[in-house]
Amino acid sequence: MNLADRKNRILDEKDYNPAEALAARLGWPKQTFHISHLKDEDFKTGIGLRSYAASRDMGFAEATGGLAQVHVNRRAKPFNAKDVSIPHFHDVLFHMVYVLKGTAKCEFEGYGVCEVREGSCWIQPPGIKHVILDYSDDYEIMEVILPAQYDTFNIEKMPETKG
Questions:
Q1: Is the per-residue pLDDT at 58 higher than 80?
Q2: How confident is the model at residue 163 (pLDDT cuts 50, 70, 90)?
Q3: pTM for this model (two decimals)
Q4: 10 Å Cβ neighbour count for 140?
Q5: What are phi and psi of 87, to 5 degrees?
């Protein structure tokens, strides 16, 4: 099944067959309704991959049976290259980042250095090597990652950008 070839259609409910639903055909886990409201006390430091960030887990991993993780990261400390600028990549199926506040400078394998700001959004393909080179004190991002649990691999240095 090529998902990119699907069309958005409007059909009558009588035409729906749960056994033929997309999630059932793909074998995705059962999902439940979940809502997460902003509370500043939900931001925790020293958890996850980034000791320099305060992270708010939205609780989607449980609601999606491990299919997706959604979190917001705020910067808890001023930029320090020693702690932050560690080249790495993630073994994921999908990774989207949306900048809620602030600015950052990042480098992506094959693309070079990019400056991002409030409203910037990107997809990091599985395994793309990247590094954060700088960020503003108010830098805050939301990330959507499939699956919810994944491995991150640190690398010694970024590959040379060609072209």
A1: yes
A2: low
A3: 0.86
A4: 20
A5: -60, 140
